[in-house]
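User: Sequence recovery, please. Input:
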């Protein structure tokens, strides 16, 4: 799909379809009024038939509108003007793109950015349009022997904005395309099955990404981890014949010595639970347990495409969590790289075990901040559903920055407390710490566990268990939280791009 920013008047527009907004009930937007004048009141007459009332998400495709050079005019219902918020805008945009993709139009000109969306600017509208349009083009079934046939004619989308907004719109478009590319990479990796996307596969993907953008990539092997004393990560890897990997990709866009943002992504390429085996139902979805890792690689693709002036290290601890004769058992005690001993009371709480050694290791990068991204707890899905990512942090300004980035991207997070009051749930009679904290506040105690390994730096944890993929009929990776992380880094880089 080709996108371009234009400032063409509707009367001079020659693309196959003009798209314009109609409010409820039957109120024309500014561009619709222009078209109405050019067509001698045709739109008003059509609306008077009652075929479309402008309700949010409704559409009506018109052909051969008198006085209009374009073959088609698509009316998109924006709903009540005072109710045009982010959600209503996304609904309208979704129906608009659905109607365009199922039409025969090869190109479309969207006159939709002159409407005030509550609390949003024109750049947001552009970004959302590109992301929603790209999301609909994403093919999940790449491993099907025959690709599903798609009869899609639309090749070009022109985004029409006023002459004063051209530069800002170009920036938003560039940014949105880079975010879409990053999210697509995260989705593709997430959707791959566990027998394809192994720790070795992730390491190869990271190496390829690094080569494409001229970045440095290091992959630590089992023997390296043994030397570093990563007893927690290695404990999880024991039950699998796939070798574990610890991947680090260095993006150096900023000053040589500027402290980096370190992103640490959980890379469990399949989580069967280990000896604390998970039930069979929906266990296939545990191929998504490397979604944190996928979001780190996706975000690196986005920022490398945008050449952001910032330093970022993407770190991925990766292994499988499977049961076998070598696997760790409930009650086993291991020593982490930090020296703290851990009683593994449930082998299914493996994410925190691989993350804790990675979090200890990244201290060597003298980070400005560290953010880990992990499909860490089923409890987070219960607390926040599939709408919000869980956020916990040992630093308020960092938490606020991430919350704001999530709002900006409409890829939102919600903060949970990390009070010391929860820490005692991790007490163990036999080791420094247990790896589970009981049923109450499972997401918080998981973060409490990680907090024991992040005391040297500003740190935030994103629990994406509910947001990284969709289940059921729409099963598939969402690419979240690449948009959130991208906005966070764009803001940090201190310029729009
Ligand atoms: N990868 C899972 C978390 C998960 C479960 C994400 C379901 C999305 C859906 C994680 O490794 C896990 O198994 N966590 C356990 C922790 C518990 C044993 C303390 C959980 O949430 O049940
Ligand atoms: Mn698990
Ligand atoms: Zn897991």
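Assistant: Recovered sequence (497 residues):
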């Amino acid at each position: 799909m080709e996108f371009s920013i234009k400032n063409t008047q509707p009367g001079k527009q020659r693309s196959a379809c003009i798209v314009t907004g109609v409010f409820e009930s039957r109120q024309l937007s500014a561009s619709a009024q222009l078209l109405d004048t050019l067509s001698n009141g045709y739109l008003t007459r059509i609306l008077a038939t009652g075929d479309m009332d402008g309700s949010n998400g409704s559409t009506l495709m018109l052909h051969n509108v008198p006085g209009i050079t374009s073959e088609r005019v698509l009316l998109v219902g924006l709903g009540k003007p005072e109710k045009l918020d982010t959600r209503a805008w996304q609904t309208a945009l979704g129906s608009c793109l659905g109607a365009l993709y199922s039409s025969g139009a090869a190109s479309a000109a969207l006159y939709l950015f002159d409407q005030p969306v509550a609390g949003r600017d024109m750049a947001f509208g552009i970004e959302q349009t590109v992301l929603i349009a790209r999301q609909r083009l994403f093919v999940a079934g790449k491993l099907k022997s025959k690709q599903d046939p798609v009869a899609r004619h639309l090749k070009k989308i022109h985004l029409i904005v006023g002459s004063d907004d051209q530069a800002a719109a170009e920036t938003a478009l560039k940014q949105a395309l880079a975010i879409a590319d990053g999210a697509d990479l995260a989705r593709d990796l997430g959707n791959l099955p566990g027998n394809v996307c192994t720790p070795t596969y992730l390491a190869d993907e990271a190496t390829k990404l690094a080569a494409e953008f001229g970045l440095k990539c290091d992959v630590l092997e089992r023997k390296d981890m043994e030397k570093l004393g990563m007893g927690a990560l290695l404990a999880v890897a024991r039950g699998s014949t796939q070798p574990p990997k610890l991947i680090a990709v260095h993006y150096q866009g900023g000053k040589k010595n500027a402290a980096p943002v370190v992103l640490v992504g959980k890379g469990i390429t399949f989580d069967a639970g280990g000896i604390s085996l998970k039930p069979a139902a929906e266990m296939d979805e545990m191929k998504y347990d490397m979604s944190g890792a996928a979001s780190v690689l996706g975000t690196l693709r986005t920022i490398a495409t945008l050449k952001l002036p910032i330093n970022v290290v993407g770190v991925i601890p990766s292994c499988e969590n499977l049961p076998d004769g070598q696997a760790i058992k409930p009650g086993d005690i291991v020593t982490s790289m930090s020296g703290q001993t851990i009683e593994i009371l449930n082998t299914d709480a493996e994410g925190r075990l691989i993350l804790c050694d990675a979090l200890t290791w990244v201290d060597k990068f003298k980070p400005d901040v560290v953010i880990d991204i992990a499909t860490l707890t089923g409890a987070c899905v219960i607390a926040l559903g599939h709408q919000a990512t869980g956020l916990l942090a040992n630093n308020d300004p960092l938490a606020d920055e991430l919350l704001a980035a999530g709002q900006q991207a409409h890829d939102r997070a919600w903060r949970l407390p990390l009070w010391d009051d929860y820490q005692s749930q991790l007490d163990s009679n036999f080791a420094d710490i247990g790896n589970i904290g009981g049923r109450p506040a499972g997401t918080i105690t998981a973060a409490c566990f990680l907090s024991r390994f992040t005391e040297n730096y500003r740190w935030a944890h994103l629990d994406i268990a509910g947001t990284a993929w969709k289940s059921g009929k729409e099963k598939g990776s969402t690419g979240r939280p690449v948009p959130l992380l991208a906005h966070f880094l764009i803001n940090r880089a201190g310029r729009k791009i």
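Residues 2-160 form a domain with the Leucine Aminopeptidase, subunit E; domain 1 fold (CATH 3.40.220.10).
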